[in-house]
Design brief:
The protein is α/β, with parallel strands linked by helices and about 850 residues long. Helix content is about 60%, strand content about 10%. The protein has a seven-stranded mixed β-sheet, with helices on both faces.
Length: about 850
């Protein structure tokens, strides 16, 4: 761990090396160091560790003192230094890393500049604490610094690492790296995905005091209240306060963009990165999910109840305009702000906050609704509170002839939004309405192409709080405001034209991505489509409502690989199942639809359904003479037969697919690789190991020629499994280590898991049973972290290795080795698996 203050409250570091009088004051640059993996290093080096540690200390002290650094404290293997100049601190850190580069010790360094406060005990303040947290987020060999330090250093190019939330620190930090090397993502809280808040939560002290223990104790808490009452902001604060209570994560799942309640579970799964089933991924993890804006998806409420029942340590925090009406629900109504808090909020957000009586009256007229108050406060840039109050009063009086069944608070909120809308110019009003066609959020290019947006007009909408810029840089509207904008869009009569333009824009994006995704060239396409998923869904739904069947089909076919790779199996399966009955589709389109529907059914375990669809596809492909799809249909139908326990037919189908693939043009390489590999898989399951290896080798040669590293990794792992089953564990290990290196380099976790498991089985066959148990433990940790389920070959290998290791080691020693493997990081697990030294 990085050296840090004794307590979060005192934030003091004790001086050991210099006196207080010697330390720099004013703006000081603090530097922390820490050795990465010191415990593991101690185990590896044994008695030599003390000598290596002394050499490391000498090199660091030489580098830091050579750049006029002051040693404030040292604890164990960590240092705390102070520098009068930021440039000296950065130069010292770079020199230190260069000095350590050839040795076994890897040191992480964190740097931050701030105003120092000295006491008799040493430096005091949040800046010392912040430096320690920056250090703790870094990796060995990496120098990470804060933005205040970066702006003080000239002549060096830094790598922008983006915004990061650090433990115990409220606001996110923009961090930089003092080199252009590639390191893994920082160890920050960003994986917990709570959006950073641009301002302090005001007036909700009582609610926080009540809700924090309530969410700790209750499995499902629902914050209810009208639109604009601040449910989301309050829930985000509660979730942030509970980060330390839920060791497996706190995740925000925004549901406002969804229109289909059946997408709730897939959206949760996607947010969590659950590659298997959602329940299997969450399992017994202690986790908090914040499900935001649930009111329009109430049919999915029973799914929440089922999820909570199946996952005993999962807690759910929901925001909704009404009750969910399920047994597990504990409702908490979010009331409007009391007047003193409302006035405080207005003053915080307003450019002008006097006179006091006008501010108080505005807050009363707005019934203490936070969104309404923020919108009104934004107007003080143009109008003082007294004139603002007059205008607001006129708007409210007009509203009395509106919907009689709408609650007063909602009428007031609507009046506030409408009043803000009326202050826009005609062009700004038109753009405001036009932007409502976007679901969720949008980027500048999209707004320009679809709505002909201009930067000045967008800035005006942001300035007037009708449009928001998210932390990602994208733009969007609060859902309450978007509902109002949609009404205005309908009034313009141009809604259909814009919705068609919106659909065309996102069809273009999907179709540009599709060819690369088909060929496995993912690049950043998957992330782009993820970001625009709400807009892509909106385009499909518009096409469906308007009977634009051709446009809808083109979207489905373009999105197939995205849905498949990103795990949107239920959504893709449902869409393709609906499209199967499309009577007017051309043979080419119908072949694509049948293939997509079959693969989605197969991946969801609906093997009979998949086989039925593939029989239809095979017949149609033969009828129209499409040999490529004949081969592909035979191949997938053969693999489905394996799952249906019909191995003889599976073999016949795959042998036919391989024979026909040999007659395809030379550019049909991928199909040839897949057919050959799948036949090898059937033979492996039938026990024909050497013939399976021969087919895998053939496919491997083709995949390497094509440059498909991921497929090569899969094939090497399959060869290793076949070699192991044929009694050749040493040859299996060689292949598996090569496959592991490729998978790890790609960040392909599924492949890493399979390789670790089969390497464990190979170690057990060679009587290296402690090594086998450690590898199984490492695989288990990674498997649970991503929700991956082993296939039959790997599952049998795992069971065999575990049984052999437990028998030889005894239960206690086996459990100890398994636990040791579970503690390894993915990088350390791979490094261990690639070593061949004896245990």
């Amino acid at each position: 761990m990085c050296t840090r203050p004794r307590t979060a409250s005192s934030r003091v570091l004790r001086l050991r090396v210099v006196t207080t009088a010697q330390l720099p004051t004013g703006t000081v640059t603090f530097l922390f160091t820490d050795i990465e993996g010191s415990t593991k290093l101690l185990s590896e080096l044994g008695d030599d560790y003390a000598h290596v540690l002394l050499a490391h200390r000498r090199k660091l002290r030489n580098a830091f003192s050579g750049h006029r650094g002051f040693e404030v404290d040292t604890q164990g293997d960590a240092f705390f230094y102070a520098f009068a100049h930021a440039s000296e601190a950065v130069a010292a850190a770079q020199e230190a890393q260069a000095a350590l580069a050839e040795g076994p010790i890897r040191v992480r360094i964190g740097i931050h500049s701030g105003e120092s406060r000295l006491t008799e005990e040493g430096y005091v303040g949040i800046d010392v604490h912040r430096t320690a947290r920056i250090c703790a987020a870094a990796h060995g060999g990496q120098v990470v610094l804060s933005e205040p330090t970066r702006v003080l250093v000239d002549g060096i190019e830094f790598k922008d690492l983006g915004l990061h939330r650090l433990k115990d620190l409220g606001r996110p930090e923009k961090l930089f790296q003092a080199s252009d090397e590639d390191f893994p993502p920082l160890r920050s809280l960003n994986a917990m995905n709570l959006p950073s808040q641009p301002s302090q939560l005001i007036g909700r002290e009582r609610e926080l005091e009540e809700l924090i223990p309530l969410v700790r104790e209750q499995r499902l808490v629902n914050l209810t209240g009208p639109g604009g009452s601040g449910k989301t902001r309050l829930a985000l604060q509660v979730a942030a306060e509970l980060v330390d209570d839920f060791v497996d994560g706190v995740f925000w799942v925004p549901l406002a963009p969804l229109t289909d309640w059946e997408l709730v579970e897939p959206t949760i799964a996607q947010t969590l990165g659950a590659k298997g089933g959602l329940v299997e991924h969450v399992d017994e993890k202690r986790m908090l999910l914040l499900l935001d804006n649930f009111e329009h998806l109430l049919p999915a409420a029973t799914k929440l109840s089922d999820l909570a029942s199946a996952c005993p340590s999962l807690h759910l925090l929901v925001t909704s305009r009404g009750q969910l009406r399920i047994a597990a629900e504990r409702e908490y109504e979010v009331e409007p702000l009391p007047e003193p808090a409302a006035v405080r909020l207005f003053r915080e957000r307003a450019a002008v906050s006097e006179p006091e009586h006008a501010v108080a009256e505005i807050c009363r007229r707005l019934d203490g609704l936070p969104l309404a108050i923020e919108l009104a406060a934004a107007r003080t840039k143009v109008l003082p509170p007294e004139k603002l109050l007059d205008r607001l009063g006129e708007r409210l009086s007009v509203l009395t002839s509106g919907r009689r069944d709408a609650p007063d608070r909602q009428q007031t909120l609507r009046a506030t939004i409408e009043w803000s809308y009326d202050l826009l110019s005609e062009d700004e009003q038109r753009l405001f309405a036009d932007l409502a066609v976007f679901a969720g959020s949008f980027d500048l290019e999209g707004s320009e192409r679809v709505c002909a947006a201009e930067l000045d007009a967008l800035d005006t909408l942001i300035d007037k709080s009708l449009l928001r810029r998210w932390a990602s840089g994208r733009l969007g509207m609060l859902e309450t405001i978007r509902e109002f904008a949609l009404e205005k869009l309908e009034e313009t009569g141009e809604g259909e034209l814009l919705l068609r333009r919106h659909a065309d824009h996102f069809l273009g994006l999907a179709e540009r991505a599709a060819p690369d995704l088909r060929q496995g060239r993912w690049g950043d396409w998957l992330d782009q489509l993820d970001t625009e998923h709400a807009n892509l869904r909106a385009a499909i739904e518009w096409a469906d409502r308007r009977g634009r069947d051709e446009l809808k089909l083109r979207l489905l076919l373009a999105l197939y690989h995205f849905w498949f790779v990103r795990g949107h199996l239920d959504e893709g399966g449902r869409r393709f199942d609906e499209a199967v009955n499309h009577a007017e589709a051309t043979p080419d389109v119908r072949l694509q639809i049948l293939g997509g529907a079959a693969l989605f059914a197969y991946e969801r375990g609906k093997f009979s359904r998949a086989a039925s669809l593939l029989e239809q596809r095979l017949a149609l492909a033969r009828e129209v003479g499409d040999q490529m799809r004949v081969v592909d249909s035979l191949r997938i139908l053969g693999t489905a037969q394996v799952e249906l326990d019909n191995l003889p037919r599976a073999r016949r189908l795959l042998e036919e697919s391989v024979a026909l693939a040999g007659q395809l043009p030379d550019d049909a390489v991928q199909v040839k690789i897949l057919t050959t590999g799948d036949l090898g898989w059937v033979l492996l399951n039938e026990g024909e190991y050497q013939r399976a290896v021969g087919l895998y080798e053939e496919a491997l040669t083709l995949s390497r020629e094509r440059g498909d590293t991921r497929l090569a990794s899969n094939l090497l792992e399959s060869i290793g499994a076949a070699e192991l089953r044929s009694g050749r564990p040493r040859e299996a290990t060689t292949r598996l280590q090569e496959a592991l290196a490729l998978a790890h380099g790609l960040g392909y976790d599924d492949g890493v898991i399979c390789c670790l498991v089969v390497l464990g089985a190979a170690a057990a066959r060679e009587d290296r049973v402690r090594r086998a148990a450690i590898l199984l433990g490492a695989a288990e940790t990674l498997q649970h972290s991503i929700g991956y389920s082993l296939q039959r070959v790997e599952r049998e290998a795992s069971e065999e290795a575990a049984a052999a290791s437990r028998e030889r080691l005894g239960t206690e020693r086996f459990d100890s080795a398994l636990a040791e493997g579970r503690m390894l990081s993915p990088d350390d697990a791979v490094a261990y698996a690639r070593r061949n030294d004896e245990d």
